[in-house]
Design goal:
Layout: H1 2-22, E1 26-30, E2 35-39, E3 44-49, E4 54-59, E5 67-74, H2 81-89, E6 97-103, E7 106-115, E8 130-139, E9 142-151, H3 155-168, E10 170-171
Antiparallel strand pairs: 1-2, 2-10, 3-4, 4-5, 5-9, 6-7, 7-8, 8-9
Amino acid sequence: MRKVAVARCAFVVLTLSMIAASGADKTVTDKDFGFQIVFPLSWAVLEKNSEDAIATGAYSSKDGRPSVTVKVYSIKEGITANDFFKSRFGNIFFWRETGEAKVGNMTAYKAVHEVTQTPGDGWDADLEDLTEIIYCIVAGKRGYVITSSYEKHAHDKYAKDIDAIVKSFKLIEAK
């Protein structure tokens, strides 16, 4: 199992190096997990594997620290996006907004929450208050979680980028 993960990481690094060298769009295609997503050229793209998910993250090192990640989980077939959301996040946060949404032509469950920092509560002193938007999508025996987050003051600056990234997400045929 570990050899597969190491080989996959090496492939990802090689692929990202080729993309960076070519100057092409930052399109991440994962045939193993059956998805594709596109990031703005100005964003750094990172990929890493964990035991239960592949995470594809992108961020801008500019102010506002926006990020978008995709995680893929094995789930029981027949589960709804709403049930998948509840199984992953339950009542962890107070959700400012929840409900059905569309990501491309797919039905998703969307949730928005805000993190307000209190001095001395263990948060990074340099980090501002955050907004996090989560989309849960179900396809067969896979659950996809697309998470975007950004500092509240940077919403206007990054909202279009984040919206375009989320809208670019699509399912492809998995191996």
